[in-house]
Amino acid sequence: MINSGKTSKGMNAKICYTILYVYCGLVIASCGSRINDRSADERAGSYYYEKYRPQFHFSPEASWMNDPNGMVFLSDEYHLFYQYYPDSTVWGPMHWGHAVSPDMVHWTHLPVALYPDSLGYIFSGSAVVDSDNTAGFSDDGNPAIVAVFTYHNQKLESSGSDLFQSQGIAYSTDRGRTWTKFSGNPVLPNPGIRDFRDPKVFRHEESGKWIMILAVHDRVHLYSSPDLKSWSFESEFGEKSGAHGGVWECPDLFPLKVKGSEGTKWIMLVSINPGGPNGGSATQYFTGSFDGHSFTPDGSEERWLDWGTDNYAGVTWSGIPETDGRRLFLGWMSNWNYATVVPTEVWRSAMTIPRELSLLYENGDYILLSKPVNELKILRNNSKTLIHGNKDFSGELDIALDSLKLTRCEAIIEFDLTGSNADTLGIILENTEGERLIAGFSIPGKNIYIDRTSSGNSSFSERFAGIAEAPYKAGDKLNIHMFIDASSAELFIDDGRLVMTSLFFPADGFSKLIIFSKGGEAILEKAELHEFASIWR
Ligand code: FRU
């Protein structure tokens, strides 16, 4: 527009500079006002400041979200796709929403990647980088991302047929920005089984094949493929292993090096709903071996990745470079028991914080450890050690927060259990209304628990309030590491040996941190708090 032909080159340059100057001025002024007005924004409930809106967890701008899908890393970007229904805040015809991040912490929302079509809604699935172009979708040397997902055909389901779920693929050759569905879909038709979904695909280098793990009613099936387009059945797992209180969903299978040894084990994650240890949805895991054909478990007992009520359908990122080598996990922070009725407006649901999974061998047993990823440390914008050195106490100890805010933070509390004669100890988050979220360790009960009975609004579902418990054998110390956001707490005990994730909906944000000891004295060794910056500004 400026270069209309009527002005000379010099004039053009002048006008350009003037526009650039004014524009920069405006940008600087608006940035400044954003920063200075932050608390005004907060009060006004503007962008991402609605009541209960997570400040450092991923949530969609608006509408319904459930499972994370297609998590893949390519060209310095973490992709997160997710089950999404753009037209409502309750579940409906599923799309794949999409966001990208340089660090799994800060996210940029992108347009919907996959829309339902004549074959069905787009249910959960995964994505891989096809570096060797096995599917032939890349024509310019840039690798294609191939998404593998479930088609859910609502019409077929309503007609009483069992054949309503099949697997399809789609590809992108422009870093996930645009997607083409494969013309030969479905690539894995339904063999006559009602629950036949949630493909997680990975490359098995030893056999030179793609492997798909698929949830099939209350077990999993493994398939293999040379090209992501034709799939052959390999094996079944699960009939006599793990929990079977509900249908199995969203599986994953990957190798992990065993900490402190040369060995490697294969880990299988399987979400189950209902049938979780504290009601409704949860994710179990198995350790074992995989030979490119079948999975052999070390044992058949139930094991839970997260004992809380609110971590479901989580899987791990594919395409993480070997130089990084981490196994990175993210889950949907809700529970089908009440997900569609939680009291948020505008949007519904968030993801957990990203976590690194690792495997520890101890006392003849393998333990899957979950730890918050290191990248979260970039959010710390105000850190204080509130207590340092042994402090004997009983009853409730109100910790002076020294101006730090509890509503988005990371709290690290450590107890020395050796000289303690307490029955129960732990932490309480409290607000001015007296609502409380309690996380504790019961020594006689030998369990870690989160009590959200009096944590705020629970009237939306009879199944929400209550105490979630997990058996735990503590050592000499108990380290409580908690990530607290506007409506969630994620509890990591003793370096991720036990994890519990819990939602809550208080009338007002928690503002008091109380450490408690019941039935005797406890020894508090340290209390440290890191207030977080919001990821949305
Ligand atoms: C798990 C799940 C998946 C399914 C998707 C549908 O939460 O039920 O099994 O693919 O959600 O949205």
Task: Give the arrangement of secondary structure elements.
Layout: H1 9-36, H2 38-44, E1 63-74, E2 77-85, E3 95-101, E4 108-114, E5 121-130, E6 144-152, H3 154-158, E7 165-172, E8 180-181, E9 196-204, E10 209-216, E11 219-225, E12 232-237, E13 247-259, E14 264-273, E15 282-290, E16 295-297, E17 312-316, E18 327-332, E19 347-348, E20 355-362, E21 365-372, E22 380-399, E23 409-416, E24 424-430, E25 436-442, E26 447-451, E27 467-471, E28 477-485, E29 488-493, E30 498-503, E31 512-532
Parallel strand pairs: 1-19, 13-20
Antiparallel strand pairs: 1-2, 2-3, 3-4, 5-6, 6-7, 7-8, 9-10, 10-11, 11-12, 13-14, 14-15, 15-16, 17-18, 18-20, 20-21, 22-31, 23-28, 23-31, 24-25, 24-31, 25-26, 26-27, 28-29, 29-30
Helix pairs in contact: 1-2
The structure holds beta-D-fructofuranose.
Question: Mind explaining what this structure looks like?
Answer:
Strands 22, 23, 24, 25, 26, 27, 28, 29, 30 and 31 form a 10-stranded antiparallel sheet that branches. Strands 13, 14, 15, 16, 17, 18, 20 and 21 form an 8-stranded mixed sheet that branches. This protein has helices spanning 9-36, 38-44, 154-158; strands at 63-74, 77-85, 95-101, 108-114, 121-130, 144-152, 165-172, 180-181, 196-204, 209-216, 219-225, 232-237, 247-259, 264-273, 282-290, 295-297, 312-316, 327-332, 347-348, 355-362, 365-372, 380-399, 409-416, 424-430, 436-442, 447-451, 467-471, 477-485, 488-493, 498-503, 512-532. The relative contact order is 0.12. The protein is globular. The chain has 3 helices and 31 strands. A hairpin with a 2-residue loop joins strand 10 and strand 11. With 537 residues, it is mainly beta. The protein starts with 8 loop residues before the first helix and ends in a 5-residue tail after the last strand. Helix 1 packs across helix 2 (38-44). Helices cover 7% and strands 47% of the residues. Beta-D-fructofuranose binds at residues 66-67, 83, 94, 123-124, 150, 197-198, 249-250, 313.
